[in-house]
Amino acid sequence: MSQYTSAAKKQMEKSIDSLVYNFTRVRTGRANAHVLDGIKVDYYGQPTPITQLAGVKVPEASMLVIEPWDKGILRDIEKAIELSDLGITPSNDGASIRLPFPRPTEERRKELVKECGRYAEDAKVGIRNARRDANNKAEKDEELSEDEVSREKKAIQKLTDDYVAKVDELLKNKTAEVMEI
């Protein structure tokens, strides 16, 4: 693998990683602890992720339970979840917080599929940008002959096709998960 294809591969890998991260944040009817990743709680003056302050359990498919190690922060965690854009109302029982994940309606599931499609398209754009950058670098390399540049472009295009296929497969799987009742 040449320097151009390996550089393109690194960039394309980042696009896939970003897509996978974005897909974990899409809220389906299943409980997923990753929805809490972006929520920070003010803990002794420091914004701290919930996962560093509490144990997060999934006792059933549609329920998350957050059990803070310091019970005094329970109310702060609840407030941070309420202020987030999660759209779930937390239930505080004095020892833990329960987050029920209601099943999305048919209309909401279709919106979620569209959102996933946008994430997938963003990933494809990132992959195409990596291809363009690698092709430009190969063309500007004066040490490469025209045939070598052509071979590099073919290798980069093959890599691009493989990564676009990965994005399509990830989107297909996420769509099936979202549309599952």
UniProtKB/TrEMBL annotation:
Top-level taxon of the source organism: Bacteria
InterPro entries, A to Z: Ribosome_recyc_fac, Ribosome_recyc_fac_dom, RRF_sf
Broad class of where this protein is predominantly found: cytoplasm
Entry GO terms, CC: cytoplasm
An MF annotation (GO) of this entry: ribosomal large subunit binding
Segments of this protein annotated with the region Disordered: 128-150
Keywords linked to the UniProt accession: Cytoplasm, Protein biosynthesis
One GO BP: translational termination
Basic and acidic residues bias spans: 128-140
Subcellular location: Cytoplasm
Residue ranges occupied by any Ribosome recycling factor domain in the UniProt entry: 22-179
Pfam families: RRF (PF01765)
Function text: Responsible for the release of ribosomes from messenger RNA at the termination of protein biosynthesis. May increase the efficiency of translation by recycling ribosomes from one round of translation to another.
Entry similarity comment: Belongs to the RRF family.
NCBIfam families assigned to the protein according to its UniProt record, in alphabetical order: frr
Protein name: Ribosome-recycling factor
Biological source species: Parafannyhessea umbonata
